[in-house]
Amino acid sequence: MKKIVTLILVFISTFSFSQEVIKNVDAATFKKMIEEKKYILIDLRTADEIKSKGKIKGATELDFLDKNAEANIEKLDKKKSYLIYCAGGGRSGDCAELMKKQGFKDVVNLEKGFGDWKNKGFEIETK
């Protein structure tokens, strides 16, 4: 009986650790994930930031500094998978935590943000 309980505890702990909600990844990994086309890509920067610096091609704009940002995030489908980014990783890290609290199951954060993406020479689009 003791072995069965131990096996169950090992299984539960392994399963719970493997179900990580938030993943922080580098720009190269983020790029590969975009190419998989199974994620919704969201740019959390302001309209002025996007206008002046561009954005990752195909990203939906959702200004995390907007007063309605939390409500707009709440409206997203929690069952879908999201790739999120901001300028340097701070806002997107905060947004990832918010999404986790709101019940999202799969959120991937571009750890060093759009600045790192651009510095690596990856494709951007401008308005």
Summarize this structure as a short list of keywords or feature phrases.
127 residues, alpha/beta, Oxidized Rhodanese, domain 1, 5-stranded parallel β-sheet, 6 helices, 5 strands, globular
Q: Overview of this structure, please?
A:
With 127 residues, the protein is α/β, with parallel strands linked by helices. The chain has one domain: Oxidized Rhodanese, domain 1, CATH 3.40.250. It contains 6 helices and 5 strands. The protein has a 5-stranded parallel beta sheet. The termini are far apart. About 8% of the residues have low confidence.
From the N-terminal CA to the C-terminal CA, the straight-line distance is 65 Å
Give the name of the CATH architecture: 3-Layer(aba) Sandwich
Order of neighbouring strands in the sheet with most strands: 1-5-4-2-3
Strand content: 15-25%
Number of strands: 5
Radius of gyration equals: 17 Å
Task: Specify the number of helices.
Answer: 6
Global structural class: alpha/beta
Query: How would you sum up the major sheet?
Result: 5 strands, parallel
Give a topology summary.
Elements (H helix, E strand, L loop, with lengths): L1 H17 L3 E4 L1 H10 L3 E4 L3 H7 L6 E2 L7 H6 L6 E5 L4 H12 L4 E5 L2 H7 L8
Parallel strand pairs: 1-5, 2-3, 2-4, 4-5
